[in-house]
Amino acid sequence: MLPATIILSFPQGTTVSTAMTVESLGAFTGTVQLSPLIFQPDLTISLNTTIIQLSPGGIVNVQLNATAASTLASTTYFGYLMGNSGSQSHITYLIIDVVQLSAPVISIISVSPNPANTGASVTLNFGVYSLVTVTGITVNWGDGTTTDNLAATAISDSHVYATTGDAKSETFKITINATNVAGIGTATFLEVVTDRLPTTSITGVSPSSVYVGQTFTLSFAASDADGTIASASIDWGDGMNRALTGTATQATHSYTSYGTFAIKATITDNSGNTASATYTMTIPQPDFSVSATSPSATTTGQSATSTITITANAGFTGTINLSVTTQPSGPSCTATPTSITQSQTATVSCSSTTAGTYTITVTGTSGSTSHQSTFSTTFNEQVSPASPQPNTILGLAPVIFYGILGGVIAVIAAIGTLVALRSRQNNRPRGSLPSQAT
Q: What is the 8-class DSSP label of residue 239?
């Protein structure tokens, strides 16, 4: 019978099986009776068959089953299995270790990632060792969510932590339980979970161009994937700050001076984590410009007038004083009025006794700021009146001219009278005498 010694090891309350063979040696033919013997009543040995018929060279496989009662002490037990055939017998020795039945042993292989952010998938890998069949495995992730019930053969599980509450990070105790007939085996692991940062962005400024003293609106957006926005604050970059509620999305402000300012919007979530966004705001310097029209050319002694226009830029306010210079010197120029405010006009009148073309410069000054505009004007010499010509008529002195004219008229009159008399005579009947006066 083979093997010559059978060694078995199994836990209390379980059954174990093994195989052995009974072989005919030489020309043996006959029936073999198998009988097990063990010296412990709570340890049972059984065979799938006890009578074997052998022929020369034949081999028969036999299954041996050993069962230990759950109350059987854990120790080593001895026995034997005897095969008898007539006067012949053979023995196979039995050495049986009954071990104490225990709950499954769990080993945690890895937990990744650790630490993990909220919203990330955490994977747990583990192994379970048990002398008997495992009937169930559970995983409690320690965050109050439903316990995962796994198959008895499971070796991994995964989970997503949604929140750390009002803390920036939280440590959760992962508990794995495996069950067999002896009880529950347990293993734990501490997983660190960190709160995700909130997010914020500045979405716009209205109006987009802002001057000193002008109120504008800053718009921003904020969100927190694993919590809520608790508060917000705006640093305007000019030493002023504005505290806002967690639901705010806008804030207003105005600057008292020009320059470039770095605006910083900071939000805080319910866990105390913060996020910021920045925006560069440029406030232009208030200013003004001066323009002048060019007058037409005139003559000395006459006035040339230019219209001066003041244009306010970047929210400029204030009084602008006007002054006038000429190049070269000579003309006399006056600005009216000499002081004006934004979006107004003035006139500059110039006169000169000396002919020539002159460059006139008009300067507007307000505080330390000044701007100029120039125009050119030309003064021409006046034209002298013509010298008096002699008083003649057709080149003759008036006395002579009129004397001749009177003589001509007298001659013409005499001729006319003579012609008239002759005409009357020609019209009288022949033989008649001129009538006599009565």
A: S
